[in-house]
């Protein structure tokens, strides 16, 4: 069951849908906190049971939420368009405001998928004291032709296929979620978006995971992270697309659990 909390953002009050997952196998005060950052078309509900399964395996608490414009959070304002810095604003404005509103003081492990992985990287670079570690699922650090080609296909599916109906099960306003994401990614200047320069500021441990059959990015993404953040652990999964937590969930949970426990013992 989700709840909501209000934050001030972009000169207005917005409601953020969120849910806590309590620890099951650890003392509450000592349990690591995992914060889940969804993909560009995702939401709290689109994670399904993955956060609960991962937290259960890791003996962790979890915080899952929908960013503004997604899920049951406040939709985009009428006529609102996102800028080239939309992921930076999520990392530097929305996430800190949400954590403050929920009185989260301990450093968190950020589990980010796709755009959520990029936001996690940017937050770790700008707020190192708030981040214990990063688990990145198919993140983006620059724009590739394969990404844009499949985002164009998604637009066709949304306008003429079944994608809108599918998203309507997870978003109060599917147009808010889809067009906010699709229009900025396909805005011609966004082809130059690149966050590799931010990687040098990251000080926490990183696990970067990507499928070998990812239709939205190549292995150059996570290998680029490893070049920019020394000590990054990579997991490259066969028979896996853009959603490793769905396509190879058991391997992702096992690798993440081992990563968190190993790093916490250092």
Automatic annotation (TrEMBL):
State the GO CC annotations. membrane
Matching entries from InterPro entries are given as: AB_hydrolase_1, AB_hydrolase_fold, AB_hydrolase_sf
Q: Where is the AB hydrolase-1 domain?
A: 34-255
One Pfam family name is Abhydrolase_6
Instruction: Tell me the domain of life.
Output: Bacteria
What protein name is recorded for this chain? Pimeloyl-ACP methyl ester carboxylesterase
């Amino acid at each position: 069951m989700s709840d909501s909390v209000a934050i001030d953002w972009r000169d207005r009050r917005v409601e953020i849908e969120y849910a806590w997952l309590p620890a099951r196998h650890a003392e509450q005060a000592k349990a690591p906190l995992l914060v889940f950052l969804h993909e560009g078309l995702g939401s709290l509900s689109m994670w399904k049971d993955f956060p609960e399964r991962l937290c259960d395996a890791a003996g962790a608490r979890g915080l899952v939420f929908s960013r503004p414009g997604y899920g049951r959070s406040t939709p985009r304002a009428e006529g609102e368009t996102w800028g080239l810095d939309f992921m930076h604003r999520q990392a530097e404005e929305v996430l800190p405001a949400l954590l403050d509103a929920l009185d989260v003081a301990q450093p968190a492990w950020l589990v980010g998928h796709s755009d959520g992985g990029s936001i996690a990287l940017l937050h770790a670079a700008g707020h190192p004291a708030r981040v214990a570690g990063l688990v990145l699922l198919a993140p983006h650090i620059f724009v590739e032709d394969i990404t844009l080609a499949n985002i164009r296909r998604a637009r066709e599916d949304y306008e003429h296929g079944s994608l809108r109906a599918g998203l309507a099960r997870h978003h109060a306003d599917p147009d808010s979620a889809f067009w906010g994401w699709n229009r900025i990614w396909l805005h011609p200047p966004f082809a130059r978006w690149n966050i590799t320069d931010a990687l040098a500021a990251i000080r926490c441990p990183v696990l970067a995971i990507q499928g070998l059959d990812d239709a939205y990015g190549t292995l150059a993404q996570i290998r680029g992270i490893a070049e920019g953040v020394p000590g990054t652990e990579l997991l490259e999964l066969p028979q896996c697309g853009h959603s490793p937590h769905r396509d190879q969930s058991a391997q992702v949970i096992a690798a993440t659990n081992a990563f968190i426990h190993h790093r916490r013992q250092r």
